[in-house]
Amino acid sequence: MRLIVTGTGDAFSAERFGSSALIETAQGFVAIDCPGCPLAMYRKASERSGIEIDPARIHDLILTHLHADHAGGLETMAFHRKYMSGGAGKPGLWAADRVMERMWERLAPSMDGRGSGDKATNSLSDFYSPGILHMDSHTKVGDLVVEARWTKHSIPTVGLLISDGQTTLGWSGDTEFEREHAQWLSQADLIIHECGQSAMHATWDQLSTLPEELQRRMRLLHVPDGVDLPEGHMRQLSDGEVLEIAPVMQQ
Predict the structure, then answer these.
(1) 145-189 pLDDT tens trace
(2) In the 3-class helix/strand/coil scheme, how is 135-184 assigned residue by residue?
(3) Is the pTM of this model over 0.85?
(4) I need a surface site. Which of 83, 92, 130, 206 has the fewest CB within 10 A?
Protein backbone atom coordinates (compact mmCIF):
# COMPACT_ATOMS: atom_id res chain seq x y z
CA MET A 1 0.00 0.00 0.00
CA ARG A 2 1.27 3.45 -0.90
CA LEU A 3 0.17 6.43 1.21
CA ILE A 4 0.63 10.07 0.23
CA VAL A 5 0.52 12.33 3.28
CA THR A 6 -1.27 15.46 2.08
CA GLY A 7 -1.43 17.37 5.37
CA THR A 8 0.07 17.13 8.84
CA GLY A 9 -1.08 20.30 10.61
CA ASP A 10 -3.56 20.84 13.42
CA ALA A 11 -6.56 23.20 13.38
CA PHE A 12 -4.38 26.27 14.04
CA SER A 13 -1.50 25.58 11.69
CA ALA A 14 -0.29 28.51 9.59
CA GLU A 15 2.36 26.38 7.89
CA ARG A 16 0.75 23.06 6.90
CA PHE A 17 -2.51 21.68 5.62
CA GLY A 18 -4.89 19.84 7.93
CA SER A 19 -4.03 16.23 8.75
CA SER A 20 -5.05 14.07 5.79
CA ALA A 21 -3.77 11.54 3.27
CA LEU A 22 -4.44 9.71 0.03
CA ILE A 23 -4.23 5.96 -0.49
CA GLU A 24 -3.24 5.08 -4.05
CA THR A 25 -5.49 2.46 -5.66
CA ALA A 26 -5.83 0.85 -9.08
CA GLN A 27 -8.78 3.19 -9.73
CA GLY A 28 -7.14 6.37 -8.44
CA PHE A 29 -7.13 7.53 -4.82
CA VAL A 30 -9.07 7.19 -1.59
CA ALA A 31 -8.86 10.30 0.58
CA ILE A 32 -8.69 10.20 4.35
CA ASP A 33 -10.25 13.47 5.51
CA CYS A 34 -10.57 16.61 3.42
CA PRO A 35 -9.37 19.86 5.05
CA GLY A 36 -9.84 23.34 3.61
CA CYS A 37 -8.12 24.42 0.37
CA PRO A 38 -7.96 20.84 -0.94
CA LEU A 39 -7.02 21.78 -4.51
CA ALA A 40 -3.96 23.71 -3.30
CA MET A 41 -3.18 20.87 -0.89
CA TYR A 42 -3.23 18.24 -3.63
CA ARG A 43 -1.15 20.43 -5.96
CA LYS A 44 1.48 20.91 -3.26
CA ALA A 45 1.45 17.19 -2.45
CA SER A 46 1.97 16.43 -6.16
CA GLU A 47 4.96 18.75 -6.30
CA ARG A 48 6.55 17.39 -3.13
CA SER A 49 5.84 13.70 -3.74
CA GLY A 50 6.46 13.55 -7.48
CA ILE A 51 3.14 11.72 -7.84
CA GLU A 52 0.53 13.31 -10.09
CA ILE A 53 -2.63 13.87 -8.05
CA ASP A 54 -5.66 14.72 -10.13
CA PRO A 55 -8.57 15.53 -7.76
CA ALA A 56 -10.93 14.01 -10.34
CA ARG A 57 -9.29 10.61 -9.65
CA ILE A 58 -10.29 10.63 -5.97
CA HIS A 59 -13.07 8.06 -6.16
CA ASP A 60 -13.87 7.87 -2.44
CA LEU A 61 -13.42 10.08 0.62
CA ILE A 62 -13.43 8.77 4.21
CA LEU A 63 -14.27 11.34 6.88
CA THR A 64 -13.23 10.80 10.50
CA HIS A 65 -15.21 13.78 11.84
CA LEU A 66 -16.64 17.18 10.97
CA HIS A 67 -14.11 19.67 12.38
CA ALA A 68 -13.02 22.09 9.66
CA ASP A 69 -9.38 20.98 9.62
CA HIS A 70 -10.66 17.54 8.56
CA ALA A 71 -13.84 18.29 6.61
CA GLY A 72 -13.59 21.94 5.51
CA GLY A 73 -12.77 21.04 1.89
CA LEU A 74 -15.88 18.97 1.17
CA GLU A 75 -17.73 21.85 -0.48
CA THR A 76 -14.81 22.67 -2.78
CA MET A 77 -14.34 19.03 -3.74
CA ALA A 78 -18.05 18.60 -4.44
CA PHE A 79 -18.33 21.66 -6.67
CA HIS A 80 -15.05 20.91 -8.43
CA ARG A 81 -16.14 17.37 -9.17
CA LYS A 82 -19.59 18.42 -10.41
CA TYR A 83 -18.65 21.46 -12.49
CA MET A 84 -14.92 21.26 -13.30
CA SER A 85 -14.01 17.60 -13.71
CA GLY A 86 -15.61 16.78 -17.05
CA GLY A 87 -18.11 14.13 -16.01
CA ALA A 88 -15.87 12.22 -13.60
CA GLY A 89 -18.97 11.22 -11.62
CA LYS A 90 -19.84 11.45 -7.94
CA PRO A 91 -17.22 10.20 -5.47
CA GLY A 92 -18.19 8.08 -2.51
CA LEU A 93 -18.34 9.84 0.85
CA TRP A 94 -17.96 7.56 3.87
CA ALA A 95 -18.47 8.31 7.54
CA ALA A 96 -19.84 6.68 10.68
CA ASP A 97 -23.58 7.09 11.24
CA ARG A 98 -23.29 9.80 13.91
CA VAL A 99 -20.96 11.77 11.64
CA MET A 100 -23.03 11.27 8.49
CA GLU A 101 -26.30 12.29 10.14
CA ARG A 102 -25.02 15.87 10.48
CA MET A 103 -23.01 16.01 7.24
CA TRP A 104 -25.66 17.79 5.18
CA GLU A 105 -26.54 20.04 8.11
CA ARG A 106 -22.97 21.29 7.89
CA LEU A 107 -22.89 21.62 4.09
CA ALA A 108 -26.44 22.64 3.22
CA PRO A 109 -26.19 26.41 3.91
CA SER A 110 -23.71 26.78 1.06
CA MET A 111 -24.75 23.88 -1.15
CA ASP A 112 -28.52 23.36 -1.11
CA GLY A 113 -29.18 25.90 -3.88
CA ARG A 114 -31.94 27.83 -2.14
CA GLY A 115 -30.92 31.17 -3.64
CA SER A 116 -33.42 33.79 -2.53
CA GLY A 117 -36.23 31.26 -2.28
CA ASP A 118 -37.27 28.87 0.45
CA LYS A 119 -36.97 25.57 -1.37
CA ALA A 120 -33.76 23.56 -1.50
CA THR A 121 -32.86 22.23 -4.93
CA ASN A 122 -29.89 20.07 -3.94
CA SER A 123 -29.15 17.35 -1.41
CA LEU A 124 -25.97 15.55 -0.38
CA SER A 125 -26.61 12.79 -2.92
CA ASP A 126 -26.46 15.34 -5.76
CA PHE A 127 -22.74 15.72 -5.04
CA TYR A 128 -21.60 12.53 -3.30
CA SER A 129 -22.60 8.89 -3.03
CA PRO A 130 -22.86 8.64 0.77
CA GLY A 131 -22.03 5.42 2.59
CA ILE A 132 -21.92 4.43 6.25
CA LEU A 133 -18.82 3.07 7.97
CA HIS A 134 -20.08 0.22 10.12
CA MET A 135 -18.83 0.11 13.69
CA ASP A 136 -19.46 -3.60 14.24
CA SER A 137 -18.25 -5.02 10.91
CA HIS A 138 -16.02 -4.31 7.92
CA THR A 139 -16.98 -1.81 5.22
CA LYS A 140 -15.84 -2.17 1.60
CA VAL A 141 -14.62 1.11 0.12
CA GLY A 142 -13.53 0.44 -3.44
CA ASP A 143 -10.95 -2.33 -3.22
CA LEU A 144 -10.15 -1.49 0.41
CA VAL A 145 -11.64 -2.93 3.59
CA VAL A 146 -12.24 -0.44 6.40
CA GLU A 147 -12.89 -0.92 10.11
CA ALA A 148 -13.85 2.03 12.32
CA ARG A 149 -13.74 2.64 16.07
CA TRP A 150 -15.02 5.61 18.09
CA THR A 151 -12.31 7.82 19.60
CA LYS A 152 -12.40 10.13 22.61
CA HIS A 153 -12.92 13.60 21.13
CA SER A 154 -15.20 16.61 21.49
CA ILE A 155 -17.50 15.50 18.64
CA PRO A 156 -18.17 12.05 17.13
CA THR A 157 -14.88 10.91 15.60
CA VAL A 158 -13.51 7.58 14.41
CA GLY A 159 -10.15 5.92 14.05
CA LEU A 160 -9.58 3.62 11.07
CA LEU A 161 -8.00 0.34 10.08
CA ILE A 162 -7.70 0.20 6.28
CA SER A 163 -6.52 -2.92 4.47
CA ASP A 164 -5.78 -3.67 0.82
CA GLY A 165 -5.55 -7.40 1.54
CA GLN A 166 -1.76 -7.35 1.91
CA THR A 167 -1.04 -4.55 4.37
CA THR A 168 -3.06 -2.55 6.88
CA LEU A 169 -2.90 1.14 7.75
CA GLY A 170 -3.96 2.36 11.18
CA TRP A 171 -5.24 5.95 11.40
CA SER A 172 -5.90 7.20 14.92
CA GLY A 173 -8.25 10.07 14.11
CA ASP A 174 -8.36 12.98 16.54
CA THR A 175 -8.43 11.51 20.03
CA GLU A 176 -7.36 11.84 23.60
CA PHE A 177 -4.81 9.26 24.60
CA GLU A 178 -6.52 5.93 25.07
CA ARG A 179 -4.49 2.77 25.55
CA GLU A 180 -7.37 0.63 24.27
CA HIS A 181 -7.44 2.63 21.03
CA ALA A 182 -3.70 2.18 20.56
CA GLN A 183 -4.12 -1.55 21.16
CA TRP A 184 -6.83 -1.70 18.49
CA LEU A 185 -4.56 0.18 16.06
CA SER A 186 -1.73 -2.27 16.81
CA GLN A 187 -3.31 -4.67 14.28
CA ALA A 188 -1.89 -2.41 11.54
CA ASP A 189 1.48 -2.64 9.81
CA LEU A 190 1.89 1.15 10.05
CA ILE A 191 0.04 3.52 12.38
CA ILE A 192 -0.47 7.23 11.74
CA HIS A 193 -1.25 8.78 15.13
CA GLU A 194 -2.13 12.33 16.05
CA CYS A 195 0.14 14.07 18.58
CA GLY A 196 -1.08 17.31 20.12
CA GLN A 197 -0.20 19.47 23.06
CA SER A 198 -3.61 20.18 24.56
CA ALA A 199 -6.81 18.67 25.92
CA MET A 200 -8.66 16.23 23.67
CA HIS A 201 -5.43 15.24 21.91
CA ALA A 202 -2.85 12.55 22.64
CA THR A 203 0.54 13.94 23.66
CA TRP A 204 4.08 12.75 23.05
CA ASP A 205 4.56 11.99 26.75
CA GLN A 206 1.48 9.76 26.71
CA LEU A 207 2.31 8.01 23.43
CA SER A 208 5.86 7.33 24.64
CA THR A 209 4.43 5.10 27.39
CA LEU A 210 3.31 2.59 24.74
CA PRO A 211 5.44 -0.51 24.08
CA GLU A 212 8.54 0.25 21.99
CA GLU A 213 7.52 -2.29 19.34
CA LEU A 214 4.32 -0.33 18.80
CA GLN A 215 6.11 3.04 18.81
CA ARG A 216 8.39 1.78 16.02
CA ARG A 217 5.33 1.38 13.79
CA MET A 218 3.98 4.85 14.57
CA ARG A 219 4.36 8.05 12.58
CA LEU A 220 2.96 11.32 13.92
CA LEU A 221 0.94 14.24 12.58
CA HIS A 222 -1.41 16.94 13.91
CA VAL A 223 1.61 18.37 15.77
CA PRO A 224 1.23 22.12 16.48
CA ASP A 225 3.43 24.58 14.61
CA GLY A 226 6.72 25.34 16.33
CA VAL A 227 6.73 22.19 18.46
CA ASP A 228 9.91 20.13 18.27
CA LEU A 229 9.26 16.55 19.31
CA PRO A 230 11.94 14.61 21.18
CA GLU A 231 14.07 12.03 19.41
CA GLY A 232 12.56 8.58 19.49
CA HIS A 233 10.95 5.76 17.56
CA MET A 234 7.93 7.89 16.59
CA ARG A 235 8.85 10.23 13.75
CA GLN A 236 6.88 13.32 12.75
CA LEU A 237 5.58 13.30 9.17
CA SER A 238 5.70 16.16 6.68
CA ASP A 239 3.25 17.36 4.03
CA GLY A 240 3.79 15.56 0.72
CA GLU A 241 5.67 12.61 2.21
CA VAL A 242 5.14 9.20 0.60
CA LEU A 243 5.01 6.04 2.71
CA GLU A 244 5.32 2.56 1.25
CA ILE A 245 3.59 0.31 3.78
CA ALA A 246 5.06 -3.17 4.09
CA PRO A 247 3.92 -6.09 6.24
CA VAL A 248 5.36 -5.91 9.77
CA MET A 249 7.54 -8.98 9.24
CA GLN A 250 9.25 -7.26 6.26
CA GLN A 251 9.96 -3.96 8.07
Answers:
(1) 999 999 999 999 999 999 999 999 999 999 999 999 999 999 999
(2) CCCCEEECCEEEEEEECCCCCCCEEEEEECCCCEEEECCCCCCCHHHHHH
(3) yes
(4) 83
